[in-house]
Design goal:
- The chain is an alpha+beta fold.
- Helices cover 27% and strands 27% of the residues.
- It has 10 helices and 18 strands.
- Strands 6, 7, 8, 10, 14, 15, 17 and 18 form an 8-stranded mixed sheet that branches. It has a 6-stranded mixed sheet with strand order 1-2-3-4-12-11, covered by helices on one side. Strands 5-9 form a two-stranded antiparallel sheet.
- β2, α1 and β3 form a beta-alpha-beta unit.
- The longest helix is centred in the middle third of the chain and has 35 residues.
- The mean pLDDT is 96.
Length: 397
């Protein structure tokens, strides 16, 4: 489909989703965002659903302002994937050992490494900039400085919620490694600190929703937020790179005879801010549950823990601010999923996938998400599909 335009107070709301299928609360959030004085454009992805302040699955382009709650608390959250030389025929019949090895190597949930991972031991890790990145920790908000040790030990860890590490097979039988994570606790604490700071500012007192509080350009508060935001986005990128390096090491060890070769890693943020230019104007583009899909940009759009995922290439559609969806998108809240489904339902819906099937991850059951094929179909003018993947192992936090 192409987009549908819905009238908004300051800008039209361009929707790559049927407005009739979007929950009332999410539609109200979109209308609220369209009232912001600084807004220059709003694009809505097919995975749109209710969020905090701004919906998940929205792209908000503003001039001279940025809304920290619209970025979300998992700054820089995103995906990484890599195609391997392995094929489905190389995999053992019982995948439980492989899943166990991944879980031993990559801490999940609130876990962390016993000591910081040395990225120098990881094959192909981009070391340039690593020391400079940690050197800049001194410049982040004083409120989170005491978290430095935890931040170093959580680098290269998964987290919980919808984060995952997966072993996938594409339509041609090739094996892919894929993972989803962000900036861990340090990103969350930086986000919450700055959201609190923004809500105190005088220019935000008359907003329709206090969660839409913004920082304005050329102010010390904006400078401080931008510094911490871009640092946290880098943390998330490095976090995924280290996890992927550890994941590749596990695969090398488990498939020694195959001498596994890895193609270049595809990686993309989907909760972040980028400085971009549209219609001759420099804008701050916030993608909350959306990926960049500029012409030729590779992206990853995952489904749920029992369905397929897609590797895509952007078509560079400026109407969406060169964006696409970040996944299938939830169609019910975590609590609603827990009320409606059981561990038995989860086992049925993840048949054939080596993964947790207990009540602790029922909120991640495939039925809690929109059908990924439909979400892909609704954005054919934003991305082209490069590969369709189906997971055979899924490690959840």
């Amino acid at each position: 489909m192409s987009y549908v335009e819905v009238p908004g107070a300051k800008v039209p709301i361009r929707m790559w989703a049927d407005p009739a299928t979007v929950e009332g609360g999410a539609m109200q959030q979109l209308q609220n965002v369209a009232t912001l004085p600084w807004i220059k454009g709003l694009a809505v992805m097919p995975d749109v659903h209710y969020g905090k302040g701004a919906t998940v699955g929205s792209v908000i382009a503003m001039h001279g302002a940025v809304c920290p709650a619209a970025v979300g608390v998992d700054i820089g959250c995103g995906m990484s994937a890599v195609k391997t030389s392995l094929t489905a025929n190389d995999l053992p019949g019982d995948l439980s050992r492989l899943r166990s090895k991944i879980e031993q190597a990559i801490p999940v949930g609130r876990g962390m490494h016993d000591s910081p991972v040395d990225p120098g031991r990881l094959h192909g890790f981009p070391m340039a900039g690593w020391d400079d990145f940690w050197g800049r920790f001194d410049g982040v908000a004083d409120a989170v400085k005491f978290r430095q040790e935890r931040a170093t030990k959580q680098m290269g860890t998964l987290g919980s919620g919808n984060h995952f590490v997966e072993f996938c097979i594409d339509s041609n039988g090739s094996v892919w490694l894929m993972l989803h994570s962000g900036s861990r606790n340090i990103g969350k604490e930086l986000a919450e600190y700055h959201i609190g700071q923004a809500q105190k500012l005088p220019h935000n007192q008359g907003l329709v929703d206090r969660d839409l509080a913004v920082f304005i350009s050329d102010t010390p508060q904006m400078a401080a937020y931008r510094n911490d935001l871009f640092w946290a986005q880098e943390y998330a990128k490095y976090n995924r790179a280290i996890m992927m390096g550890i994941f590749q090491d596990v695969v090398r060890r488990e498939f020694k005879k195959a001498k596994v070769v890895f193609e270049p890693v595809i990686s993309c943020h989907h909760n972040y801010v980028s400085e971009e230019r549209y219609d001759g104007m420099d804008l701050l583009v916030t993608r909350k549950g959306a990926i960049r899909a500029g012409s030729g940009d590779f992206g990853i759009i995952p489904g749920s823990m029992g369905t397929g995922s897609y590797i895509v290439k952007g078509l560079g559609n400026e109407k969406s601010f060169n964006s696409a969806s970040h996944g299938a998108g939830r169609r019910m809240s975590r609590n609603a999923a827990k009320r409606r489904f059981s561990a038995r339902d989860l086992a049925e819906q993840t048949l054939g996938v080596e993964c947790r099937k207990d009540s602790g991850v029922v909120d991640e059951i495939p039925a809690a998400y929109k059908p990924i094929e439909q979400v892909i179909d609704q954005q054919r003018d934003l991305v082209e599909v490069v590969a369709k993947l189906k997971q055979v192992i899924c490690v959840k936090g």
